[in-house]
């Protein structure tokens, strides 16, 4: 890390002064976290994307795929593939929605609830390794900044 931002050509790659470099750094951090979670969750037969949907279903389910897409901000076709994967493993199921016979509600199965509990036990030490070193004030600032970034409307 630099105490002062670099000058000259190096300044163009300094995320403290270059928005593109900041975006690249954020993408690299995301990739590192995703790889760590995928590596750890592989033993449980799922990936980070499955884990996110299982957690979403546990928190909000049963819900329609459309609601789940909006809640988790996942691409429609990606969500269909994730739900298909979870159904094949017996972790989630689509059922006709009570309020709209044309729609399906997605819910966790009993096996899905059990797998989620197992996966959460795997995920805790991974999260601790990735983020546990942050001082509480730094962590709070990071969370606040990421929430602002995630919720800021695009122009």
Automatic annotation (TrEMBL):
InterPro entries in the record: HTH_MarR-typ, MarR/SlyA-like, WH-like_DNA-bd_sf, WH_DNA-bd_sf
Domain HTH marR-type: 19-151
Any one GO molecular-function label of the UniProt entry: DNA-binding transcription factor activity
Pfam families (alphabetical): MarR_2
GO biological process: response to stress
Name of the protein in its database record: MarR family transcriptional regulator
Organism annotation: Streptomyces buecherae
Lineage, uppermost ranks: Bacteria, Bacillati, Actinomycetota, Actinomycetes, Kitasatosporales
């Amino acid at each position: 890390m630099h105490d002062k931002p670099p000058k000259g050509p190096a300044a163009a790659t300094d995320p403290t002064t270059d928005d593109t470099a900041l975006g690249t750094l954020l993408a690299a951090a995301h990739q590192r976290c995703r790889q760590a979670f995928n590596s750890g969750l592989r033993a449980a037969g799922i990936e980070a994307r499955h884990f996110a949907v299982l957690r979403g279903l546990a928190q909000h389910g049963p819900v329609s795929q459309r609601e789940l897409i909006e809640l988790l901000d996942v691409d429609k076709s990606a969500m269909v593939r994730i739900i298909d994967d979870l159904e094949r493993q017996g972790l989630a199921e689509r059922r006709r929605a009570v309020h709209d016979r044309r729609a399906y509600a997605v819910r966790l199965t009993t096996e899905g609830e059990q797998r989620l509990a197992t996966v959460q036990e795997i995920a805790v030490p991974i999260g601790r390794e990735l983020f546990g070193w942050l001082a509480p004030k730094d962590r709070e600032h990071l969370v606040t900044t990421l929430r602002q970034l995630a919720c800021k409307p695009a122009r």
